[in-house]
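Chapter review: from sequence to fold.
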Amino acid sequence: MRKISCLIALFLLVAPLYAGVDARMLRQPDVSQNQIAFVYAGDIWTVPKTGGTARRLSSPRGEESFPRFSPDGSWIAFSGNYDGNEDVYVVSADGGPVRRITHHPHSDRMLDWYPQGEALLYASAMRSGRQRFRQLYRVPIQGGLPGKVPIPYGEFGAISPDGNTLAYMPKSRDGRSWKRYRGGWAPDIWLHQLWRGTAENITNHPANDSHPMWHGDTLYFLSDRGPEQRYNIWAYNLENRRTRQVTKFDRFDIHYPAIGPSEIVFEAAGRI
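The token string follows.
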């Protein structure tokens, strides 16, 4: 099995407006074959994987979050708050005008592209009955009516490379102000077989397990179960059901990891 490499503090990403400034608070990154996308100061920026000057992708009024590259790296889907509500939008990875995909008044969080690039997976509370709980939806990339993924609740998730399995979290502790939580609200990662309608909890651990990411027969995820008691990257082998620790940060938590064709990117201590 080909091991995936992690981009750990390899890039010092500097905003071009202030050359030489040690910029921090770089958030919610994603990586394609050639670029890294991230959020800084409420806008989406891109930078070559080899390093260099970061470029602001677009600058409409409003906050942008959770950029995600299309499978071929030519488009970026994201959540944008331009009208007092978060909806899903798409923009060329080279920049340009944005195109709106969702239109519901509830907030929509962009999660993942389907493997062929034909649809998007996002989380929304629009039919959950409670604003504090979200469910997962599939919407065509050309727009149109979204279809609900047949699971009760979902906060973050990712579609397998063959499009048959959804890895997801029914609940999330992201954004909470306390850490090292252990209790009934600690999130786990579930696998839902879309074609069979069955689901299985594959982590089932007292710690917090989140943000699943697919790569071949390995599911990478975030967990604070290690001896460091910090969020680190872990890997779950779907064939032998074994779990191993990938990173070992002991001072700062990892946040909002994302996977590309051959790397994982994440934020830690305000850096990518």
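Two observations follow directly from the output. The first strand starts at residue 5 and ends at 6. The chain has no helices and 23 strands.
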